[in-house]
Amino acid sequence: MSNRHGVLESYQYQRVQQSLDQKNWSSTILAAVASADDVPAFDESTVREVLSKESVAAGRELDAVLERNMPPRYVSDPEFEWTGSGEEAAIVVTVASDRGEQAITTLDSIVAKQMLRFSRFAQAWINDARAVWSTQAAAGEATP
After folding, report:
1. Is residue 143 a part of any domain in this protein?
2. 78-93 pLDDT tens trace
3. What is the pTM of this model?
4. Does residue 144 belong to any structural domain of this protein?
C-alpha cells in the first residue's frame, strides 16, 4: 500500500511539474486545481468529517485505477520498494511505454479529481483562517 501512495505522489509531481514547465495551463491536472468549484464550509471538524470520509470513498476507485494503469511491479510487487528505487523521475515515461498513452490520460484524470478535491479544502481552510484574522484585525486583536 505504501508503494501505491509513493507511486501516486511521484506521478502527480512529475505531471504537475511537466505542465508548469511547458506552461500548459489547460492540462487536465492544472485546470482541475484552478477550477472555480464551490468551496466547502470549514471548521475544526471539516478535515475529519468531510475530507477524510471523501478520501475513504475515493480510495477504491483510485486503487483500481493504479492497479490497471501502473506497471504491476510498482503497485503490486511486495518485494519492490518504490521509495529510494531511483525510478521516480522516469515514472511518466515508464507508464507510457509499459501501459500506453491511455494510461496517462486515465491517471491524469484521477489525479486531477483528487487534486481538485484537496484544493477545495485547502482553499476553505485558507478562507477560514483569513476570516478569523480579519475579524481579529477589526477588533484590534490580530498580529501581522
Report:
1. no
2. 999 999 999 999 999 9
3. 0.80
4. no
